[in-house]
Write a structure and sequence with these properties.
4 strands, Gyrase A, domain 2, four-stranded antiparallel sheet, 84 residues, 25% helix, 2 helices, alpha+beta
């Protein structure tokens, strides 16, 4: 069983060198979705953060996109991935 949890994903981004502010982490079985308040993490950076925290090859399908936030004109960065 994977040791990846919503809390451990939040900690991985909080503890990263750039210290991303995590708004929410959603977990659905082995799929995760992270919304970041600020920071412009790239797909490669997100994958590095996750593999540093959980081990190389532990995550796959990492994707990054910008989404509309709750406030008008606000944009948040969404990171989605799956765990093995």
């Amino acid at each position: 069983m994977s040791d990846v949890t919503a809390e451990s994903v939040r900690e991985a981004f909080d503890d990263a060198d750039d210290g991303y502010e995590v708004r929410t982490v959603e977990e659905n079985r082995s799929q995760f979705r992270v919304l970041l308040d600020e920071g412009s993490v790239s797909r490669d950076e997100a994958e590095d953060i996750l593999e540093d925290a959980f081990g190389e090859g532990s995550v796959f399908g990492v994707g990054v996109s910008d989404e509309r936030g709750e406030d008008e004109g606000e944009t948040v960065r969404a990171v989605s991935f799956r765990v093995r």
